[in-house]
Write a structure and sequence with these properties.
about 200 residues; Arc Repressor Mutant, subunit A; 2 domains; 10 helices; globular
């Protein structure tokens, strides 16, 4: 939903790529302070509330909220830059996150996620899969497989919500061999089937 075109009205003719937050060499992950976490949580709550409302100008408000989050990130980037991560483990974790995020969003039914497993990422990063798992577990508290699965589930929810693609098209784009495997995976993260999730989203809107 929050594409460059969507944000154009609040970027004064610029694009998101021109913002300092998205420049090469930046930091893809920030550790928020408790105060920043509270603020960001409140912004997301407001966004959900507006999205479900019938206010005629709700998308203008959503743009403003997204811009506020971008500025929060840019402030955090300035703080992070004062204490850069120098360790090999930190660099590996950052490279993993960058690789993972670069695969999304999926814009067409013909697009495929190229890296799906912990071994895929380890091979691409030229490290042993056990080493990658240890680094990510130490830095995030989650396994490589869990991080990948969580991001795939996030994209699946977005596609179910924002497109009219068939379940097969979504499953195929996310790298599943069939809809049954996709449905089994999705239930682990959403507690409902993809079809039920799509119906619930339609009702909530």
């Amino acid at each position: 939903m929050f594409t460059a075109e969507f944000l154009l009205p609040v970027l004064r003719g610029g694009t998101p790529d021109e913002l300092p937050l998205f420049q090469a060499g930046g930091y893809p992950v920030f550790q928020l302070t408790p105060a920043e976490t509270t603020r960001a949580t409140a912004i997301f709550a407001q966004m959900h509330e507006e999205l479900a409302s019938d206010y005629a100008h709700k998308y203008d408000l959503l743009r403003a909220y997204v811009l506020e989050l971008l500025h929060l990130g840019q402030k955090r980037q300035s703080t992070t830059a004062l204490h850069p991560a120098h360790s090999a483990a930190d660099r590996l974790a950052s490279r993993f996150v960058e690789l993972l995020e670069r695969q999304f969003p999926i814009d067409t039914p013909q697009q495929r996620v190229p890296l799906r497993t912990a071994k895929d990422f380890a091979d691409h990063l030229a490290v042993h899969v056990n080493h990658l798992n240890k680094v990510l577990k130490d830095s995030t508290g989650r396994t490589t497989t869990d991080l990948i699965g969580g991001r795939l589930a996030q994209e699946a929810k977005a596609l179910l919500h924002q497109t009219n693609w068939t379940l097969w098209e979504i499953a195929d784009g996310l790298g599943f061999v069939d809809v049954a495997h996709f449905s089994h995976f999705f239930r682990r993260y959403a507690a409902v089937s993809p079809g039920a999730f799509r119906s619930l989203e339609v009702v909530s809107i």
